[in-house]
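Appendix B, record 7
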Amino acid sequence: MATCGGCRVFFLTVRTLCGTSRSASPHTLPLTKHRTLSTSSRSYSLDSFTGSKKSPVQSGRPERTSPSTGGVQRNLSAVAVPLKGQFRPLCRYDLLDLGDVDENAQKALVCKSLRRFIVDPTLARIVTDHLAEDIEDGKAVIFECNPGPGVLTRALLNRGAQRVVALENDAHFLPELQALERHVEGQLDVVHCDFFKLDPIGHGSMRPPAMYSEKLFSNLGISEVPWSSDIPVKVVGIFSQKNERSLLWKLIYCLFERLSIFRYGRVELIMFISKKEYTKLLTRPRDYKNYQAYSVLWQMASDIELLHEEPLSSFLTTKRNGTTTTKSTLSQGDNLCLVRMTPREDLFNSHLTPLNGSTLVMMVKQCLAKRRSRLIEQINSWNPGSGPELISKLGFLENTLTGDVYPDEYKRLFELMEQSGNFAESWLYEETLETKNTGHG
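Structure tokens (predicted):
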């Protein structure tokens, strides 16, 4: 303390938190400038309660900011804090509360339609454990279909997901999801949209949750990439039990024609589907009962991997009257399979293109309509007399049945037909128009 001419001047040395030098162990939380408000289960940044909203210009991919500039944000894997030569995402220290099963179930019960929800935090963590490499890679945007109370959403963010897009079709769930969106500061986009009803037939303006994929991807700032590029988007969710097969048919048509979500590249599906449909997806030739057209097409178009199998009783299933399904009403075989379906990089070539992809789909559907019929007869029905030559090039016997042919062999058959001058470009055109949207096979 010093004085001068009756005026007293105080010199006070202040050691601020951000300026204090201290040694950091690999397990200590990096120091930050903002204070926290603690509750019984988690800590919130005071900045997150300001109530500020995004400006319209932020509808695309938000800018990331460094923890060293301004308040700390939960920029999960997008911002890493250097610590002894390692990069450790802030999310690992600032975990979101996943709630408990009963609490999450009560939130899910606002849904009055037939839907399945993940309400158990343990199951949500199991799912994210299987997606660890996807999340750590950080190159793809994760689309979560119908998150409901957002248990899996929070688990994805806790795991370090760089960017999650929550596509929710029920407006009742939007307020809480939007509050989470504001809290995590740029790691989450909430869109009132039904992924399973993207790109409905027809044209004109759409009201949410109906939406065109072009509008969705444009608003999110996601551009088209070449088919050979890295996976741009990974879609995570649960297929609807009421039209599971129809959804798989819709997606396989879009995949072969590179329409809808597949227009933007090799979009990967990581979905819970029923064990029954999963088993049929992987059915092999000579199983004449279960080997069907969509089995062939999905195996031809994508790598299919089983990640996890979970009893249906682990999920909350709501009915149209707002009640839930109890364990006593479920059979032992009612399991859901978490399945990864990755479109093959080498699917398209000079003979199979998005322009004739629907023709291949119809060819396979016709062949598998009668799985015990002779393949040579089917080929001759398209172009009389061409069967023996194509059968010979494929190395098949003349008595080979349509249910004996592997997916890659059907692709080879189609390519040979395209190379041949014996088949007009419209050889299946009329029937394709008549049956394309039937969704059976």
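Remarks on this record: The chain is about 30% helix and 15% strand. The chain has a mean pLDDT of 79.
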